[in-house]
Amino acid sequence: MNLKESMKKKIISAYTASVDKHESEIVNSVLEYENFEVEQNAKPQKTSNIGIIVGSIVRYSGGHTSILRLGTGLSKNGKTVTYISFKNQSLEKMQEAAKGNLPSVEGKFAKLQDVSLETYDIIIATSWQSVYYARRFEAYKMYFVQDYEPYFFKLNERYLLAKKTYELGLHIVSLGKWNIEQIKRLGSVNVKYKTDYIDFPYEPSEYICYERNYDKYIGKKDISIAVYSKEDGKRIPNMLQIILKKATKELQSMGISLEIYFFGFDKKTKIQIGKNLGKLNRKEMIELYKKVDFGMVASMTNISLVPYEMLATGLPIIEFIEGSFASFFPSGAATLVDFNYKMLCDELVKCITVNNIVKNQIQLAQKYLETLSWEHSCRQFIDILEEL
Questions:
Q1: Are 212 and 291 in contact (CB under 8 A)?
Q2: pLDDT value for 185
């Protein structure tokens, strides 16, 4: 074995040991008080004091922003809301990150070790790990499900523990129907457990539909695309780059150039094609949407806010047939493609040769978006609470 191979083996071994240690630490922490008994979850006498269990609050996180919007909506409807962290993050850092995601955030912030387990009427888990901490409280337990989290892992202990959270008797409230469909399809939930959903919302007051001349798409020879992706596999980062690399070459042979801007990656991540803009704040994203001709998102699990943002600003989007987009938007609201780069090329060519395709997509999408808001979705959540 030469020096290079020896070093490679040592690096792989060290990485594997690090991953194993990290997984062991997570498993040990969530199972410290766990016995996997199903919750009886007796209905609460009141629903005024609500604790929301979170990990570390991270800036530029759509999932954390949705949690904060829900908590703020509950607060505006007269509930006392506390965001309770089970992670080693200071209150100052929690508040700073929360305000960075949602400047108008309402609610208190607390550490798990500093709160009484008997203080709250309702405890809301927000992730698979948080379920195991929520179960320690003497309260009615709900589970705000934003994605089917077992998909985030290989078949390992975290996969099994994430899947188990749907079987422990918490009252599941899903962000959109898709999560509940996955939970039931994959056999994780007994029908006797209560499940509800609220519409996947966006905040219309924060997005302006910018004037865009869709007639000028006809005959375009230079096409620009803003592509949202992340390093984790559910956003198919490697597949996206390969598909776009092949599509770029194919379109060049037709005399069409493709300019690609990736965002969502770490700025240091090396990509195979296009430009990596890194993580963008809302203002930077909107400026990007105004600049390009199409947006592209791979919503392979539960949909994110990004397609909503793009369509709200008038940007036509490309999504994947294999993903969840069609479970949320009406048919015809976007260009849908599969993993075959030739289909992407064909659909792009169609958009620049057939009149009104992108214009009709945007009109249809925006008509649907008019029915959505966080105020509406929070009202749905309040209605669920009032039915308890």
A1: no
A2: 86
